Amino acid sequence: MSEPVIDLHAHHVGADAVARIDAEGAAHGVTVVGKKIQVGARLTGLPVVAGLTDVDARLSWMDQAGVDVQLVAGWMDLAGYHLPPADGRWLARVQNEALAALVAAHPRRFAAAAAVPLQDPELAATELDRAVTELGHVAVQIGARVEHGGLDEPVLDPFWSAAEELGVPVVVHPAELDVPDRHRRLFLHILTGNPAETTNAAAALMLGGVLDRHPGLRFLLVHGGGFLPYQFGRIARGAVAAPEPVRSRSAHPPRDLLRHFHFDTVVHDPGALRYLEDFASGRVVLGSDYPFPMRDIDPVGSVGKAIDDREARDSILSRTPAGLLARRRTP
What is the pLDDT of residues 138-150, one digit of tens each? Predict the structure, then answer.
């Protein structure tokens, strides 16, 4: 195909960001501990794997995988939502500046999704505006929750207003937070916990009235949208059948709100990807989750194996990702 292949789910932590954390981070509660990074009292779940910082290896992989452009976002282990707001803002700025440096060095290969200190929605809105208008970022990545607060909390409205006004898509990505040992033991916090967190986040956005208040928002749900596409009927039923005190606060049925959501292809199963394309046709985008262990090692090939229709394949690989990254400013 002549149009560029665009991967909308990948992570980058610049070597310059790691160096700044090592040099300046202690004053902000963030330190390098061996091959991991400690954010507040929490160590990252994995070491800083080489693929996060090695740009040459990333470009080599992209060439081999047939990916022309990659949207790079920070590592959610470094979201830092549990830090004091000023420290969280510092950590977001460090990551955003490292992402901007990568894009500046390779403008035809990369675009950036901002990090924001979502524990303070006003600061998050300010940092998002800086990242978009000054650094050139084209999206923003947030966690599926803010510590124990859901994405439907009205306190987040200043951030939603900024994302809506700036016209950038919001990538919803689960973060490794307070995970029970019984889940870590079998990697369940990643295998089933992450999809569950994304499902909860999307349902909260639909049922909690966020899209009633901010109808211009657009979202990308990673890992195929978690369990949402496969249990959507249950969410739709609950919107009318749940007990009145906990029933949906939206004036719209969930199915009417699906148009706000895109889904990436990182599902690791051709049948699941075919179902996802049927469920959300025109809103499925290529993803890799590079460079983590659960990445799709051949994302373009996965689409080719699952989707027979050429037009649908081209849409997933190029046209739909490009459309999602196009800014849509609120009048």
Answer: 999 999 999 999 9
